[in-house]
Amino acid sequence: MNERPKLFCKYRTWKAAVERDRKTGEYVERNRTKELLLKAEFFCQPPRFFDDPHDGLQGARPTGGPRDIDRFILNNLRGVPEIMRKHGLSSLTQLGSVKDAEDVPVLARLARKNSRRKTRVLSLSADHANELMWSFYADNHRGICLCFDSEHPFFANARSVDYVDDPTTIPVCKDGHLASDPLLYCKGRAWEWQKEWRIVWADEEPKLVPFPRDALKAVVVGDWFVQPWFDDLIQSLIQCGYRVPIYQMERLPDSFAFQTVSLGEIGPKT
């Protein structure tokens, strides 16, 4: 288990995007990070929608291609055809009748895989100055990083992600609770740079999870944060009653390093 950091960091873009409204069908401009601050809500979804295809080992994701069925059988039904042939079963619904000591663990593993699809995850980082995180998740250094108090009760269930070479070495879930499955807290070593911590909830809904405003302790903007966005960011923080210092990442001359520069503190209107 990694040592708990003082701050949990959420990297975000500040750039508004044009999206189609599901209710009206019209295209509207939305700043999702601004909405996050205004409403004090995290958007959390299952790992199968994340950028790591292996995340949570939740199985195949359909692409519409001719190999979808092969991926589904290999990832989602691995071992099932052999068990069905072995016991002369004609439908998947009959698998519940299998009591063979050799086959039960295989079916339990598949049930465990399916249960991980019924969760939602809040991903956080232990480092506000992670150059790759700024590139991947903060609009190529033009976005922001929201820093939260890791000791706030809201984050009590946060767990560090283990980066491993072989997911088969991860132990089984002992208490049977969906959010406790260790496979939801492990990733391949290729992602070790994320220094990730997670909170996992059972069930896919509600995807919007309210957080306490007083848990936000700092806002860091990227080195390339666009100057015209500052007023919008500051007004959003003031409007919602946040009291936080603002910093900016700044490149050090003649080096590959960054420093964090203070830009002052934002407080609510009196």
How many individual domains? 2
Strand order of the largest sheet: 1-6-12-13-14
The multimeric state of the shown protein is: single chain
Let me know the largest β-sheet.
5 strands, mixed
Task: Tell me the helix content.
Answer: 10-25%
Question: What structural class should be given to the helix and strand makeup?
Answer: alpha+beta
The total of helices stands at 6
SSE string, helices as H and strands as E: EEEHEHHHEHEEEEEEEHEE
Uncertain residue ranges: none
Structural features, described:
This protein is α+β, with helices and mostly antiparallel strands. Helix content is 21%, strand content 26%. A 5-stranded mixed β-sheet has the order 1-6-12-13-14. Helix 6 links the parallel strand 12 and strand 13 (244-251). The two termini are 43 Å apart. The mean pLDDT is 92.
List the helices and strands and how they pair.
Blueprint: E1 7-12, E2 17-20, E3 27-30, H1 32-39, E4 41-43, H2 68-76, H3 80-87, H4 104-116, E5 119-125, H5 131-137, E6 144-149, E7 159-160, E8 162-164, E9 186-188, E10 196-202, E11 208-210, E12 216-221, H6 229-239, E13 244-251, E14 258-266
Parallel strand pairs: 8-9, 12-13
Antiparallel strand pairs: 1-6, 2-3, 4-11, 5-10, 6-12, 7-10, 13-14
